[in-house]
Write a structure and sequence with these properties.
This protein is mainly α. It has one domain (3-201): Up-down Bundle (Four Helix Bundle (Hemerythrin (Met), subunit A)). The protein is built from 9 helices and 2 strands. The longest helix has 36 residues, at 159-194.
Length: 202
């Protein structure tokens, strides 16, 4: 494989991150115009792309400094865009949405505040707690889209509807606990980075 061809392949993870951003307007449009099945399908594509870009980067050693910043930033922007949409559709808990939004805003602010304003390099160390919170957030948001589309596949008289609603409630509660735990860990770390006591986010 030529060097130019290899260089193009290395951009796949970054392209998947940009894809998540590009799919925000179509998902919003489809949801607001009641194309719920299509909106859910695109959301699933986004969720899978989030897993795929990280896996490809690790598997084929396609990591880059730009990708390490773009991937989490794209995730936060996407999630922040979905929260008001699902609130409008009344399929996302208010408290969970607020805590999730605060966490995403705080983490997304790292790039403009630390990198662009303070012009200070920083590292990112993946933590299992953050991973679990992010995966749970995608599941809870996905259940919100599935809630809109459930009339397509879940009869209102079915006992499965009761199970679905209880699943949404349980996952939302678990997600809330994880988000609070992430904030408790991340906020002091952010302060330490601003104070130059640390240079790595977890």
């Amino acid at each position: 494989m030529s060097q130019a061809s290899a260089s193009r392949w290395r951009q796949i993870p970054n392209a998947l991150s940009f894809l998540r951003l590009l799919l925000i307007p179509p998902i919003v449009y489809l949801s607001l115009h009641q194309y719920d099945g299509l909106a859910l399908s695109l959301y699933i594509v986004v969720a899978l792309s989030d897993y795929a870009d990280g896996w490809l980067a690790r598997r084929y050693h396609w990591q880059s400094r730009f990708g390490m910043i773009l991937d989490p930033l794209a995730d936060r922007i996407f999630v922040l865009s979905m929260i008001p949409l699902l609130w409008y559709l009344d399929t996302l808990g208010l408290l969970y949405g607020i805590v999730l939004g605060v966490r995403c805003l705080l983490q997304a602010s790292v790039v403009p505040v630390v990198l662009l304003w303070l012009k200070r390099p920083f590292g990112i160390r993946a933590m299992w707690l953050q991973l679990f919170a992010s995966v749970t957030a995608y599941i809870v948001l996905g259940l919100g889209f599935a809630d809109e589309a459930r009339y397509l596949w879940l009869p209102s008289t079915s006992g499965a509807r009761f199970i679905f609603e209880r699943t949404v409630g349980a996952m939302t509660f678990i997600g809330l606990l994880l988000e609070v735990a992430v904030l408790i860990r991340f906020a002091p770390r952010y302060l330490h980075v601003l104070q130059k006591r640390k240079n790595t986010f977890e």
